[in-house]
Structures are given as C-alpha cells and as structure tokens.
Amino acid sequence: MIPDSKERKMDFALFSHMPWPEEYTPRGLYLDLTEQATAGEELGFKAIWLAEHHFTRYGLGASSLIIASNIAARTERIRLGTAVLIPPLHHPVRLAEDTATLDVLSDGRLDVGFGRGASSSEYGNFGIDHEESQARYRETIEMVEALWTTRDYSHEGKFHTVEHANLVPTPLQAPHPPVYVAATRSAESLDFVASTGRRLIVGVVLDTDDAVDLMQRFLQMSAVSGHNVSAADVPFFRYFYVAETEEQAHKEARAALNWTLDLNTWRREFTVGSEVYQPMADYLRRRTTLPPTYEYLAEHRAFIGTPDQCAAKIQALHDAGVRYFGCNFAFGGLEQSKQLKSMELFAREVMPRFRVM
Fold this sequence. Notes:
Blueprint: E1 11-16, H1 26-43, E2 47-50, H2 64-73, E3 79-85, H3 92-105, E4 110-114, H4 120-124, H5 133-149, E5 153-156, E6 161-165, E7 179-182, H6 187-195, E8 199-201, H7 208-224, E9 236-242, H8 246-267, H9 280-286, H10 294-300, E10 302-305, H11 307-319, E11 324-328, H12 336-349
Parallel strand pairs: 1-2, 1-11, 2-3, 3-4, 4-7, 7-8, 9-10, 9-11
Antiparallel strand pairs: 5-6
C-alpha cells in the first residue's frame, strides 16, 4: 500500500490550468506555456498536465488536447497529461479519436486524466444537465477505453449509442494510454477509481492534509480491490513557488495566488454567462463573499518558500507515501521570468534530494 519511506526516488511534474488575467493575451500565454514545457523537459520534469475549462479566465484550456499537441510537436520526452478532461462535455467517439491521435503523434507520451469538472456554468452552454454528470462521465470513460481497444465496438447506453465502430487510429500505447480519474470529497467517485483499477489524480483543491488522506485511502482501497495501483502512479499537485529567500517567495507569489483565489470565487457566482468581459476591479469592490486568505493557502494548500523549506514539505509528503509530485508554478499571471526562475531553482536545489535511492 504505502511505499517504504526509506526509498527516496520521486517523480516531478508540471501543472497548469492556463490562467488568463486581463493584462495578458491568449496567444502570449500559450507561447509562455510552451516555453515552460520545453524548459521542463530539459530540467527533468516527467510530465506537464493541462486542465480543461470553458468560458472563464480561470483557464484557457477549452481545447486542451490541441494545446498538448502543440507541446508534443516541440518536445521529445516530457509526457503530456490531462488533469482533467471533462468527459460529459465530449462525445465519446470524438474524445477517443482525439486522444488516440495525440498518443500517436506524441510517440506514446499521453496520460489521460478525467474528471467531472467543478462548475455547472460550464455544462449549460453544452446543453448538458450538471445533475447527470456522474452517470455521463462514467459512461463516457468506459466507452473511450472500449473504443481504444475493441474492434467493431457497439454500445447502447443511457446517453450514447454506437454500432460497429472501428477507431482510426488506435493509440500507440498498449493497450491504451494510462487512465487517471480525479476525485475529491465524493466517496462514490473514489470507489469508482479504486474498484476499476484506474489511477487517482490528487488536485490542488484540497488542503494538503486532506489530500494526503485521500491518496492513502485510495491506495488502501486499490489494494483491497486487488488492483494494487502504486503511489508512483498517483500525481499529487500543489501550488508551488520557490525563491532564494522566504520573503522573496511570498512577495512574488502573493498577488498571483490572490488573483487565483479571487477569480475562482467570482466565477462560481455564475450559473449562466461568465466573468470574462467584466473587470475584476468592479467585482472586488462589490463582492460580499471572500475567498480563503493568501496566508491560509500558503500554509495549507501551497508550497511557497526557500529550497530548504519546500524540500521539507515534500519530504513530509514522501514520508506519507507520495511518490509523484506535481508543481503548479503557473498560477494567476505570475510573470514568465519568475516562473522559469522558480522552475530552475527547484530543479537545481530540490529535485536532486529525491532522486537518490
């Protein structure tokens, strides 16, 4: 279940939901993301994981597979993860085709993460009832996996029907790309992941103690179910920023993390429409609901500090069983130069401490 704490090896990844503050352009942010991915490959990160979001400045990942394809064309080794695709917003045949094509184009570097998504406003413009999300996402995941691997595949489900479908192309990875599923507080979702042998994604939305508990419960449930998914196959993501001094780290991260907190609270006000073309300054003046404070996030959900401080936090995760740690350096419009400098410092001063067996 939980790996031997004496083993020091860990894998490290990048994560981005591709935030879009008002002073940036989508093209500029996509170029920055591509630079982060190519730099991450050179620095030794295992993967870059991209989130899918729609109709919000919270994330520019509406077409995350296209973005990943662009990164695939400019890299050779770094894996391309989706954290997450939202299956109910896609037709399963189209999703199976697109993921299989990307797996082929990337020479078998695709990791496919699924999740239900968090915002009902994202569902409405697709004509999908958010109340159906649990059933839709399960059916779609199962159909995508079957389409990847089954000749003349037929299925008559609650939401989708196909007859004698033959996917072209099929994935390069055999039998198909690794499949991950995000779960947070829902016992039903966690049971679905563990009982079916799929891999868990631990996102940034939970406090670290709760996220560790989630991972440990998953590993135990996976072992009981006979699948024995390894902790090395469970990416564990945190907001992350490292600098030479603690004061510098907090000074540089504060505004960007506060933007993330504010935008995430604001976008949840919408059941229809979104905040995209409204100034955040107006919202901040009139809001009545406050997000968690920067200090709370820095203590409970983000790793921000010096290399020694961040390494100590990662060591605590390691002692709790985490073996695959993902860094969200790209939050809230933090300047590209600062993100890259933080990545480089992390790779130089922190990663080597967890690469010794």
